[in-house]
Amino acid sequence: MVVRVSHGACKQCRRPVLYQGAEFCSPDCQGAAYLAKTLGRQPFSFDTETALITRGRLAPPLACVSWVTSSERGIVHVSEARDYVLKFLNGDEMLVAFNAAFDMTVICAQWPEMIPLVFEVYDANRVSDPMLREQLRDIAEGSYKWGEGEDGDTVRLKYNLEEIAYRRCRIKLEKGGWQLRFGELIPVPMSLWPDEAKQYAVLDSHADREVWLDQERENSEREVDYFEDEFRQSRAYFWLQLMGCWGFHTSPAEVREFARKTQQNYERLRDELLASGIVKERRTRKKDGAVEVSYVKKKAPVQALIVAEKQAKGEKVPITKKAEQKLRVIAEMIENEDVPARRAALERKADKCLASITTDKDVCSRADHPLLKKYADLSHYEHMLKSDVPLLQLGTEFPIQGKFGLANSGRTTSTVHFGKGNVQNWSTSNGMRECVEPRPGMIFAVGDFSGFELRTWSQCCLWTLGHTLMGQMLNQGMDVHLEMAARILRISYEEAKADLDANPKGRVYRPRQTSKVGNFGYAGGMGYKRLVDYARLSYNVILTEEEAFELRGHWLHWPEAQPWLDHHKRNFNNGQRQVQYRMSNRYRGDLNYTEMANGPFQALAADAAKAAGFLIARACYADPSSVLYGSRPCMFIHDEFVLEVADDYYAHDKAVELARLMVLGASPFLPDIPPVVEPLLGRKWSKSAKPLHGPDGRLIPWAPEKK
């Protein structure tokens, strides 16, 4: 017989405490007590089970709703679930759901009349997502996406319920099986459901609750709160999920033309490189006797050209990133190795790493040799054929639907449902964006924050240093890129502005583009060598290392520039590796120097844009009094919102309201350097789109010129 000795009464439920020194009888009671103390709400854990998601349907039909509280467990069929859902939405409990954005969009799709209520619940800080909380906790501790496995090795972390429930609570959830078959049970009364299906549904809600309570217990033991930003992030991922459900389409004719041009350019470069030996033809005979012809890029001649050019210039021969990482480890081992034989073996390994010459297209594109430049272009078009063309083809029949995630900095990451690629980092110069078109009867209303990260950097400089010249110029409506271009050209700002107005593609154009590279790149602590790649990839600006170094001198003319870098370098050298971002109070850990320098203004921009996105989505989905009601957000590109709005007289008003809500949502984050948005209407999504006005001053849709 086991005799349990009591060590006092539980502070929450007054039951006996079984462990000496403890104040609570269980983690459940400890978490509940912490919640009651801080928020005054008890957790109501719920989950939805649905049919499978399919292309074009990310909010599938509902099968059942399950829930777990401190006093009951329940499950109800969709045919009877409406009153139960209304009850917990109208209550005051903390609604706990893993990947809550999915469950909430399913509820909105099942009962559209509940959409305004769901927005109210989010606005009241009543939705808590254990998945987002786990991500925020790992970001704060610097272990995001990477952790230590049971055998001590570094492992890639996943943020699904199955893994988090086991990591935290040792709850084993058997995924698969009924998880994939709830669509079959929608027409079946709950009384005829198999017990395994009902138990599976309730166990998910139970696991949600246990994970959440363990997170509360752990957080209560810290001196700081890692979850202070959770409700802002929950709101953001609800409207991002809604936007992913809606998606956007591409034009079949434009996609065919894009694919044709890409294939044509690829074949032209491939044929030019066949004679040089950089590309080799390969013939493979199949079982049926047919001969298949394919083309293979050969690394050896490319590496030889790179080595010859670098040695002729007296420069270091670049090696692969993987070899660089290995070389750093080996160099440290050589330094600590005293045995001659082992030291010689390590040196041979180092020589092998140095022989791993990179054939990266960025290195080749900066080379002087024409064959290397052609090789870089060939790699570029090959990537477009393998990745960009299939992604665009995905949107010709069904919408391209983004799946959004959380980055260390607070920015959004994106992938694509039922395809590869992302929906946020598309090229602006190869015609890919122009393939996107609105649905019939609709046009795009576009709002883009002007110089957004310039403003957030200036705001952070003002908070950190107490001064910002760039912020003053932005508030005066000046073009800070043009001001820096004038310094490069050694002319006055007024002369540069007059020249740019008279000839937009004249002598001021390239220095202004180069200024963008410096203003955005150097503020984050980027070195001048790395800036060369950044300039080419982000702005199609080709710089030598000497030009990049000279550009750094021009950027340092901002009075706040060097003090900003010195501030973060000093903190980094003093051992600071964790920061708390202003406004959101979100923590981020295990930072390197560049992350410390660029993190504050990147995070501020991300938080401001997410706040604006919630206001826009609420106007579109839940506010019949708004002119945006019935419009749909379809794309979000970090500082740009794209809505599909009806192609009618009121499209102008909708674009103006979009800009107003963007400014309204972002303004609390930029109290001293207010955000600026200039809206436009477009029949295509393009970086070349400009605001156009009719005779009455109202916006009219921009469209690309027909060739």
Structure in words:
- This protein is α+β, with helices and mostly antiparallel strands.
- It is built from 25 helices and 21 strands.
- It has a five-stranded mixed beta sheet with strand order 3-2-1-4-5, sandwiched between helices.
- A hairpin with a 5-residue loop joins strand 6 and strand 7.
- Helix 6 crosses helix 8 and helix 21 crosses helix 22.
- The chain is globular and about 80 Å long.
- It starts with 26 loop residues before the first helix and ends in a 7-residue tail after the last strand.
Tell me briefly what this model is.
By secondary structure, the chain is an alpha+beta fold.
The N- and C-terminal alpha carbons lie at a distance of 89 Å
Lateral arrangement of strands in the main beta sheet: 3-2-1-4-5
Radius of gyration (CA) equals 29 Å
Low-confidence stretches: 1-7
| Helical residue percent band | 40-55%
Question: Hey, roughly how much beta strand do the residues contain?
Answer: 5-15%
Count of DSSP H/I helices: 25
Quaternary arrangement of the chains shown? single chain
* Overall outline: globular
Largest sheet properties:
5 strands, mixed
Q: Summarize model confidence as the mean pLDDT.
A: 88
Please count the beta strands (DSSP E, at least 2 residues each). 21
Structural class: alpha+beta
